[in-house]
Design brief:
about 100 residues; 4-stranded antiparallel β-sheet; about 40% helix
Amino acid sequence: MPTISEARLAGHYEVAFDNQICMHEVVLSANRQKHESGVRALDISKRLMDFGLHPPTNYFPLIVPEALMIEPTETESKQTLDVFIDAMIQIAKNRLTTRK
């Protein structure tokens, strides 16, 4: 059963482990972004920091190319999660990079 965050992000990022039971984390792949526009998982994490948000774990698990592992703590509010998801969607739509 997908989490709410997984369901909202699925149209914008590849979901690494679709249709599996999930406790609280979701693993996405930025492989689509990398191939379409050169934006890598690290670029997305840096952009999230520009929004003042804590970035996900990058490149883990190793079997997922351009992995973004999102593991919110149990104390995160739905409002905080929605802000994070909205930022992820905006990044995907804008294909923004912070490469220098």
